[in-house]
Design goal:
Layout lengths: L16 H6 L8 H21 L3 H17 L6 H8 L2 H9 L37 E10 L9 E5 L21 E5 L5 E7 L4 E2 L5 H8 L5 E2 L2 E7 L6 E6 L22 E4 L2 H7 L5 E5 L2 E3 L4
The structure holds benzoic acid (BEZ) and fe (iii) ion (FE).
The site of fe (iii) ion has 6 residues, from strand 7.
């Protein structure tokens, strides 16, 4: 029988807390789970010891995580939002989506994607509420050698002029406002009509919003248009394009901005072209080409 006063016993000692906890993991536990839990435990204990966490602070943390869980519904994932504002979502994305130089980069998916948006022919207008400054989006989808990818799927979604997605304003915005799925032509081209995106706050009426406020952080996302671009044999890209004139480009609440994703939005003053497009003059136009890497 082992002596409980023996330093190697399973009894907790603050000075060797990590070893005591990790020693409890069974020899036949899943090796990847073991690796993750050993490292998470090590960093967690180090953080608690470094800040000399008080009991009140520990309880505040427990309450915060409890409130975060209670905030989650079928429509609201407060834990992913927490991961987003801590930069963890972008870090996980970077680790999992290394691509050859020149390929279009990923950024966060966000909570407002719907997988069943309407399919449209190129040229369709996805703005169904008539608000905002008209925008023509066009470009080509190509591979790393510049060859056109015909039949690629371009799934787009955006917040409206008031800074909300359709799913946040059921009964106020038309369903599928600012959403659509397009297919590239034989030369890889696509084009559609929309409105210039504007910045908007992430949902900040829950614990994550309170945490941002306590940290003196604003909840705004830099103005963007979401895209998922996919084609057989190619790595699917989940990304955005950002407007270059947004005041929040350098302080996006979820760290989603990458310089390669800041697109060249041009203000066009061309009454006849505006007329052809059914736009008021002047209008905005952005050309954005997508480079897909081969599937991993
Ligand atoms: C979005 O861009 O839709 C988004 C991304 C992360 C958190 C909240 C919203
Ligand atoms: Fe968004």
């Amino acid at each position: 029988m082992s002596d409980l006063r023996d330093g190697d016993s399973g009894i907790f000692e603050a000075a060797r807390s990590v070893d005591v906890v990790n020693a409890r993991i069974a020899a036949d536990a899943n090796p990847r789970l073991r690796e993750i839990m050993e490292i998470v435990t090590r960093h967690l204990h180090a953080a608690v010891a470094e800040v000399q966490l008080t009991t009140e602070e520990w309880m505040t943390g427990i309450k915060f995580l409890t409130d975060t869980g209670h905030m989650c519904t079928e429509w609201r994932q407060e834990f992913i939002l927490l991961s987003d504002v801590l930069g963890v979502s972008m870090l996980v994305d970077a680790i999992n989506h290394e691509r050859p130089a020149g390929s279009t980069e990923n950024t966060v998916l966000g909570p407002f994607y719907l997988p069943d948006a309407p399919r449209y022919a190129n040229g369709a207008d996805i703005c169904l509420d008539g608000k905002g400054e008209p925008l023509l989006v066009s470009g080509r989808v190509v591979d790393g050698a510049g060859n056109a990818i015909a039949g690629a799927t371009i799934d787009v979604w955006a917040a409206n002029e008031d800074g909300f997605y359709d799913v946040q304003q059921k009964g106020i915005q038309p369903d599928f406002n600012l959403r659509g799925v397009f297919t590239t032509e034989a030369d890889g081209s696509y084009w559609f009509r929309s409105v210039k995106p504007r910045h908007y706050p992430i949902p900040d009426d829950g614990p994550v919003g309170k945490m941002l406020a306590a940290l003196g952080r604003h909840p705004n996302r830099a103005a963007h248009l979401h895209f998922i671009i996919s084609a057989p044999g190619h790595d699917t890209v989940v990304t955005h394009i950002f407007t270059p004139d947004c005041p929040y480009l350098k302080e996006d609440a979820v760290f989603g901005v990458k310089s390669s994703l800041i697109a060249d939005f041009q203000r066009i003053d061309a009454p006849q072209r505006a007329d052809e497009l059914g736009f008021t003059n002047p209008f905005w136009a952005v050309k954005w080409d997508v480079v897909l890497a081969p599937a991993a």
